[in-house]
Structure formats: structure tokens, C-alpha cells
Amino acid sequence: SRPIRIAPSILSADFGRLAEEVAAIDAAGADYIHVDIMDGHFVPNISFGPAVMASVRQVTQKPFDVHLMVAPVDPYIAAFAKAGADVITVHAEAGPHLHRTLQAIRAEGKNAGVAINPGTPVSAVEAVLDDIDLLLVMSVNPGFGGQAFIPGTLDKLRQARALVGNRPIEIEVDGGITADNARAVADAGATVFVAGSSVFGGNETQTYPHRIAAIRSA
Ligand code: DX5
Ligand code: ZN
């Protein structure tokens, strides 16, 4: 079976103690740090920008998995590369020039990802499979943490796995992931599990190792 990575989403962290929260999930066993960037335009919420990300980047060596819910996104690629992103994921729905955007990410020396919303078919990424390192299948409509997993995502994950085949592309799932659905999601083909509210819960640092381990062992 394929290696599984857990990527806690710091959208559900306590923003007043963001650097401590990032250090805490690192120590708790996170594989990647998932960073949700929301622009109040592509999605109906605003999170934070590259300056905030850069200021917490130094507290961990773990890869930063940056999910840009931004349109247009091209003007911000360089800033997030400079702020310490390792993977930069953009939405297939965010603009007409997806291939150009992916080339810009790789030109920065970063891994490139494409995200698809629940209403977007997997076939939307068929033409860019040679240009991506990660395919993010959204299991909620992006914009907020704490939403319920959309069951039809399992079928989309199976389609994504069939499309990707044995290419070196990670399949990431994001939204409503818990220890209760992680097994089904893994069986459907996901290898990277984003988890916001199910890791951060009430922001009680001492529970993070157990919460991450529960998803991993499921
Ligand atoms: C949703 C974000 C997710 C979100 C996940 O727009 O992309 O990363 O933080 O949060 P949970 O795990 O609570 O659904
Ligand atoms: Zn996300």
C-alpha cells in the first residue's frame, strides 16, 4: 500500500498563537503543514497572506502544502514561493490558463498541485497530468473549515486514482476528514489527508498527537 501523509490545516489553528500551533502539530507528527489562502473572491472567506505564512515558516522543517483559493492567482505565485511554500496548489476553476500557472509554479522550483471543487469533474485535469505533482480532490466546497464530508467524493477519488495510475502524483483530499472516514478515503485512492477541525478541535495542544495518530491508524 502507498505511504499516507497527514496534513493538518492551520485554518483551524488559534491565529493568535499561530507559530506555536505550527510547532505543536510538527511535534505531534504532522507530515505536511496545510496552509489555506482565501481571497474573499474565489471563495467567500478571507484567511491570511504570504507575510503571515513567512513569519511562521521558520518554526518547522516540515513541507508547507499551500492551497491557494485565489483568483486570479498568477500574480501571487512568486510571493508564496518566496514565503516558503514547498507545494503550491491552485484551483482548476480559478482561471483560463491553468497550464501557464502550473509552469509558473515549477519555474519557481516548487511542486505544482491542482485542486478541483466538488462540482468539477476529474477530467478537468486530464490535460495537465504531466505538469502536476499533486491532485487535490475537494471533499467540501472551499471557504470554511468544519464542514461535512461530501460522500460522492469517494467516487471522484476512485476516478482520480484511475486517471493518475502509477504516475508520481499524490492524491490529496481536503474537507471533513476524520478518523471515521479516513479508511474509506484511503481505500478510494487518497494518499494525503488534510484535516483541520478534526486535528485542532478546541485548540488543546496536548490532544494533537492523539488526533493525528487516530487519522493515521484508521
Ligand atoms: C476548506 C479548506 C480546508 C479546511 C479543512 O476550504 O481548504 O483545508 O481547512 O477543514 P476541515 O478539516 O475542518 O474540513
Ligand atoms: Zn485546504
TrEMBL record:
UniProt keyword list: Carbohydrate metabolism, Isomerase, Metal-binding
EC id: 5.1.3.1
Cofactor binding note of this UniProt entry: Binds 1 divalent metal cation per subunit.
Pathway annotation: Carbohydrate degradation
GO molecular function: D-ribulose-phosphate 3-epimerase activity
Active-site residues per Swiss-Prot or TrEMBL entry: D36 (proton acceptor), D174 (proton donor)
Coiled coil: none
InterPro entries in the record: Aldolase_TIM, Ribul_P_3_epim, Ribul_P_3_epim-like, RibuloseP-bd_barrel
Reactions catalysed, as given in the entry: D-ribulose 5-phosphate = D-xylulose 5-phosphate
CC cofactor: Fe(2+); Zn(2+); Mn(2+); Co(2+)
UniProt KW Metal-binding keyword: yes
EC main group: isomerase
Keyword hit for Lipid biosynthesis: no
Pfam short name (any one): Ribul_P_3_epim
Residues that bind a divalent metal cation: H34, D36, H67, D174
Binding positions for substrate per the UniProt entry: S9, H67, G143, F144, G145, G146, D174, G175, G176, G196, S197
Known role: Catalyzes the reversible epimerization of D-ribulose 5-phosphate to D-xylulose 5-phosphate.
Entry's family note: Belongs to the ribulose-phosphate 3-epimerase family.
Protein's recorded name: Ribulose-phosphate 3-epimerase
Annotated source species: Devosia albogilva
